[in-house]
Amino acid sequence: MSIEFRQRSAGELIGIIKRQKWLIILPMITMTAAIGYVVYKLPSIYESTSLLTVKPPTISSNLVQSLTNEDLSQRLQTINQEVLSRSSLEPLVQKYDLYKAERANGMPMELVVDKMYKKIKVDLEETGNEKVAAFRIRYRDRDPQATRNVTAELASKYVNAQVQTQTEIAESTKDLFERQLNEKKQALDELEKQRLDIMTANVATLPESEQGLVAQLSGLRDRESNIMKEKESLMNERGRLSDAIGANNRQMRLIEDFGEKETQDTARAASQIEDTPAYAQLVQKRADLNGQLDNLRKVYKDKHPSVIAKESEIARINEEIEGLKKNSDRRVQTATQASGRKAELQKKSLELENQRIQAQIGQIEQQMTAKDADLRQNASQVAALEQRINSIPNVKVALEGITAQYQSAKQTYDEILKKKNEAETVVGVETNAQGETIRVQDPANVPQSPVAPKRFMLTLVGSGIGLFLGLILAAFFEIPRLFKIQNIADAKHYTGLPVLASVPPLLTHAERTWLNRTKWLKLAGGAVAAIAIIPLIVLLLQITRLLERLVS
User: Fold this and answer.
1) What is the DSSP letter of 135?
2) Which residue, among 12, 28, 7, 24, has the nearest Cα to 537 in the 3D structure?
3) How far apart (Å, rounded) are the C-alpha atoms in residues 316 and 97?
4) Radius of gyration of the chain from Cα atoms?
5) Which end of the chain, C or N, has fewer beta carbons within 10 A?
6) Cα–Cα dist 91/48, whole Å
7) Contact at 8 Å (CB) between 22 and 523?
8) Dihedral through CA 244, CA 250, CA 251, CA 254, nearest 10?
9) How is the beta sheet containing 46-55 ordered, strand by strand?
10) Does residue 541 contact residue 458 with C-beta atoms inside 8 Å?
C-alpha cells in the first residue's frame, strides 16, 4: 500500500531554511565577493554615436523619389560591405592605436578587425517624419577620445560611399537598360513584320462567327450541366427511396422476430400464475392461516370447532389456488392471439408503405429515362458545334500567337525605355549633386561616462547565482531527511496511528557541549572554505574572460 508524501507547512519550510541558513549565506557571500571583485576590475567601455540623415533632393520629387526607411535599409546593406570591410577598418586600428593589449599579446589582425566590427552598430533611426530617412552609427571602445574619432571617421566614410555607390549604380543601370533596349527593339521589329505578313496573306479567310459559336457551345454546356445535376438529384432520390424500402424490410423482419419472442414471453408469463398478485395474496393468506392453525393446535385438540374452522378456511384457499392454475391455459391462448394480431397489423402497414415507395421509384426512373434522352440530344448538338469551331482555319491561332508575342514584346520595350529614361535622370542628378545625399546631423560626441559594464547589476547577478547554489546545497542535505520520520507529525501521517507520547533526545551536559562545539567548528570550516574559494573563482573568471565577453 502506497502512502502519500506528507506536505510540509510554511513554518516547517522556514525552519529548514533557518537550519541551513549558513549553507545558503556562505555561497552568496563567496559569489558576490568573487564576481564583484572581477566586475570592478573590468575596464570601462565608452560609446560614441553619430546621427546621419538623408538630405532631400534639390529637384522636383516627380523626377527623383524620396528615400524611405525601407530603401535606406537596403542601401545600407550595400554600403556596409564597403565601409565595414577589413580594408576599411584595419587602417583605423593602426591610426588610432586601437586594441593595444590584444595586439601586444600577438592577436592576429584578422581577429582584431573582427572584434572591432562586432562593436560597430548601424541602426535605422525613427525621426517621426516619413519623408526623412536617418540612421545612427554607434561604436564602443575603452578610450573615450578614440571612440569619438572612430565614430566620426566612420560617419565620413558613409557620406563619401553613398555618393560614389549611387553614381556607379546609376551608370551601370543606364548601360544595362541601353543594351536591353536594343535587343528588344530588334525582336519587336521582327514580330511586327511576321504579324503583317500573316494578316496580308489571310485577309479573306479570317473567321468572324467564332464568338457566336462559342456562346452557343457555352449555352449547351450549361444545359448539359443542369441536366446532369437534375439526373443526379433523381438518382439520389431513388437511392433514398430504395434505402427506405430496405429499412422497412428490415423492420418487418424485426417485427416478425420480436412478435414471435413477445408471443413466447406472453405465453410464458400467462402460464406462470406464481408471478400474479392474486396468487401471491392467496399464498400469503394460506401461510397466515397455517400459522394460526398451529397456534390453535397448541391450545386445543384437532376436534375443536376453532381448529376445524381454520382447516376449512385453508382448504378453501387451496381450492382457489387450484382454480387459478386451471385458468392459465385460457390466458395463454388469449395473450398469444393478441400479440399475433399486433405484429400482423404492423407488417401490413409496412407492406403498404413499400408499395407506395415502389410507385415513386417507377416515376423517378421514367424521369431519368427522359433526362438520358435529353443528354443524348444535347451531346449531338455539342459535337456539331465543336466540329464547326474546329473547322476554323489555323490562321487565327497563328495570328493570335504573333499578336500576343508582339504585345508582350511591346510592353517590355516600353518598360525598359521608361527605366532607361529614369536611369539617365538619376545619372544627371547624382553627377550634379542634386539628389539625395547623406549628411552628418549629429557629429560624434566624446562620451563622458561609460555604458558598460553595469557593475552593480552584475554584482547582484553574482549574489543571485550564490543564492541558487546555496539553495541547491541546502536541498542536497535536506531532501533525504524529508523521506524519514523526524517528528510527531511524520509518525502520525506515515503510521496512521495516534501518538500517545514522545520522548525528546536525552543528552548529557557533555554531549550538548560537544554538539554546540561541533556546530561552530563546521561553521568556521565552511567560512574558511568560502573565503578560500574566492581567489579560485576570481582566477577562473579572469582566465576565461567570461564577464569581459559578456559586457563587451
Assistant:
1) E
2) 28
3) 135
4) 54
5) N
6) 19
7) yes
8) -170
9) 120-124, 134-141, 46-55, 437-442
10) no
SS3 64: coil
SS3 443: coil
Q: List helix spans (H) across 119-209.
A: 144-201
Asked if 219 and 380 touch (Cβ cutoff 8 Å), the reply is no
Whether pLDDT at 433 is above 60: no
Q: Which of 14-18, 174-178, 376-380 has the lowest mean pLDDT?
A: 174-178
The whole-number pLDDT of residue 69 equals: 46
Residues in the chain: 552
What digits encode the pLDDT tens for the residues 29-75? 888 888 888 888 777 788 888 888 877 665 544 444 444 444 556 67
Per 3-state DSSP, what percentage of the chain is helix, strand, and coil (rounded to 5)? 75, 5, 20
Contacts of 494 (CB under 8 A, 6+ apart): 3, 6, 485
CB 262 within 8 Å of CB 339: yes
Nearest-angstrom CA–CA distance, 122 and 72? 12
What element of type H or E holds 424? Answer: helix 395-431
CA-closest candidate to residue 353, choices 488, 260, 255: 255
By CB neighbour count within 10 A (0-12 exposed, 13-18 middle, 19+ buried), where does 299 fall? exposed
Kindly tell me the burial class for residue 48, based on how many C-beta atoms sit within 10 Å of its own C-beta (0-12, 13-18, 19 or more).
buried
Q: At 7, list the grid cell.
A: 506536505
pLDDT higher for 265 or 533?
533
* Gap between the Cα atoms of 314 and 284, Å rounded: 11
Whether 46 contacts 141, CB under 8 Å: yes
- Express each pLDDT in 351-408 by its tens digit: 788 888 888 888 888 888 888 888 888 888 878 777 667 766 666 777 777 777 778 8
Per DSSP, the three-state class of 48 is strand
Q: C-alpha angle with apex 252: 250 to 258, nearest 5 degrees?
A: 100
Residue 31 CB: number of other CB atoms within 10 A?
Answer: 25
HEC sequence for 24-41: HHHHHHHHHHHHHHHHHH
| Pairwise pLDDT comparison (135 vs 431), residue with the higher score | 135
Examine the pLDDT at 235 and tell me if it is beyond 80: yes
pLDDT(91) > 80: yes
Q: Please give the single-letter amino acid code of residue 513.
A: T
Burial class (CB in 10 A: 0-12, 13-18, 19+), 162: buried
Q: Cell for 458?
A: 552584475
pLDDT of residue 182: 79
User: What pLDDT does 106 receive?
Assistant: 87
Evaluate whether 148 touches 444 at the Cβ level (below 8 Å): yes
Contact 26/530 with Cβ under 8 angstroms? yes
**Which candidate, 234, 324, 244, places its Cα nearest to that of 277?**
324
